[in-house]
UniProtKB/TrEMBL annotation:
Residues 21-481 form the Aldehyde dehydrogenase domain. It holds the Pfam family Aldedh. The active site is at E258. Gene3D superfamilies: Aldehyde Dehydrogenase, Chain A, domain 1 (3.40.605.10), Aldehyde Dehydrogenase, Chain A, domain 2 (3.40.309.10). This is Aldehyde dehydrogenase family protein. The keyword ATP-binding does not apply. PANTHER family: SUCCINATE-SEMIALDEHYDE DEHYDROGENASE, MITOCHONDRIAL. GO terms for cellular component: cytosol. Belongs to the aldehyde dehydrogenase family.
């Protein structure tokens, strides 16, 4: 149990299959730990492959009745779920911080952000429109209809264990599709709490199941290869995304992939430095740098490089590291020891090649996986710190001279999820906007995520879009009808 929960009924440790709380495979549990303390929180059921397959079968059985509901009826259920999530936001945030580590203020913001997707897609459920087409003959009626694609399998990550779920499940349910979700094994409690609230909201049995598992690879393979699944949605690493896409090819199922990022930030000489510093703080240090849209490669034009580095370093010194449940904490722990060691390795490689630690650079005094927010100066584009996704609170600063060089540096990656630009020049802004290969671009801001805008990347950062009107399309099929009179 997590101390301080107002509603202990949200603390669930069993799988949720076909509307029933279910024990997992015999003698198999997922040990969920608090990354701030290292202590255990819960032992959560780990489902067998047979149980995951049962969840898919129950979803298939529930599909016909769920899709037959009117759009308004589905929307009403989603709105009830939205209301319950907001009513439980403090408990949900506490669960999230306890298993993931981010500061409680960030966790509360994530709950609100996740809830916004439920409300958005509840509203979009009533706006799934088809079309009447001009006929090619006078005796025919041509129409286009949108229909739910079928059973959806979803795999979500540990860094946003609430919002990454609602961003997938809400549009699927709104479209008329049942969902079987496998949450990250590090953070299953948030998923199970959401399932409990969905149950209370009236989501029918089989329409939303949650199947935690220690064996992520095997469950992923089941989802990708199952003929029952008609849509696979995954958020995670590019490497795993490639594997799932290859496995899914055998059943020609629709896939959406929100994969790795290596976001560039371009800070030009004419940028407003305070605005750029605040933008980089937002884009780099949220969730201790553990987001897919994090500022990873910060390119600063030569004319303001020194001034910007000094201003950013001063701001970073004010970020307090500690247990996210304590007041005033800005940076929580990294998710596990492997994540902390990776950050140390990347920093050591950069320093060994001539980079200079301006602020931070080591584990914080709290020990464990707490890491100091760090600014690294004199970084070059060839260093691993720039070439690899850091997933930690480290801001590497690279000099550039011209707009052309900035564009080339920004595009020198196989990834293209998010990017950020700081400039006061309309001409520079327009040129960069047209040239940079990313799916999302923040101009003079480091906060770009919202339910009303499409979220997704280009190149090896993924396929498809989540959120906005486009977020519904991945859960729909298009049917053309030609009716002769």
């Amino acid at each position: 149990m997590i101390p301080g929960l107002k509603d202990p009924g949200l603390f669930r440790t069993q799988a949720f299959i076909d509307g029933t709380w279910t024990d997992g495979a015999p003698d198999t549990r997922i040990s969920v730990s608090d990354p701030a303390t290292g202590g255990g929180i819960a032992l959560v059921a780990s489902v067998s492959v047979a149980q995951a397959a049962q969840a898919l079968d129950s979803a298939a059985a529930a599909w016909s009745a769920w899709r037959a509901q009117t759009a308004k009826a589905r929307a009403d259920v989603l709105l009830d779920w939205y209301r319950l999530v907001l009513e439980a936001r403090e408990d949900l945030a506490l669960i999230l911080t306890s298993e993931q580590g981010k500061p409680l203020a960030e966790a509360l913001a994530e709950i609100d952000y996740g809830a916004s997707y439920i409300r958005w897609f509840a509203e979009e459920a009533r706006r799934i429109n088809g079309a009447i087409l001009p006929g090619h003959r006078s005796d025919v009626l041509l129409s286009v209809r949108k229909e739910p694609i079928g059973v959806v399998a979803a795999i979500t990550p540990w860094n946003f264990p609430n919002a990454m779920i609602t961003r997938k499940v809400a549009p699927a349910l709104a479209a008329g599709c049942p969902v079987v979700l496998k949450p990250a094994s590090a953070t299953p409690l948030s998923a199970l709490a959401l399932a409990e609230l969905a149950r209370r909201a009236g989501v029918p049995a089989g329409v939303f199941s949650v199947v935690p598992s220690r064996d992520s690879a095997t469950i992923g393979t089941l989802f990708a290869t199952s003929g029952v699944v008609r849509k696979l949605t995954f958020t995670g690493s590019t490497e795993v995304g490639r594997l799932l896409l290859a496995q899914a090819a055998g059943t020609i199922k629709k896939c959406s992939m929100e994969l790795g990022g290596n976001a560039p930030v371009l800070v030009f000489d004419d940028a407003d430095i305070p605005t750029a510093v605040q933008g980089v703080l937002a884009a780099k240090f949220r969730n201790a740098g553990q987001t897919c849209v994090c500022a990873n490669r910060i390119y600063v034009q030569s004319g303001i490089y020194t001034a910007f580095a000094a201003a950013l370093s001063d701001a970073v010194k004010g970020l307090t590291v500690g247990d996210g449940r304590q007041a005033g904490i800005a940076i929580g722990p990294l998710i596990d020891e492997a994540a902390a060691r990776k950050v140390e390795t990347l920093l050591a490689d950069a320093v060994g090649q001539g980079a200079r630690i301006a602020v931070g650079g080591q584990r914080a005094g709290a020990g464990g996986t707490f890491f100091q927010p760090t600014v690294v100066a004199e970084v070059t584009a060839a260093m691993r710190l720039v070439q690899e996704e850091i997933f930690g609170p480290v801001a590497p600063l690279v000099r550039f001279a011209t707009v052309e060089e900035a564009i080339a540096l920004a595009n020198a990656s196989d990834h293209g999820l998010a990017g950020y630009l700081f400039s006061q020049s309309p001409a520079t802004i327009e040129r960069i906007t047209n040239a940079v290969e990313v799916g999302m671009l923040g101009i003079n801001t480091g906060a770009i995520s919202t339910e009303v805008a499409p979220f997704g990347g280009v190149k090896q950062s993924g396929l498809g879009r989540e959120g906005a009107q486009l977020g519904m399309e991945d859960y729909l099929e298009t049917k053309y009808v030609c009716q002769q009179f």
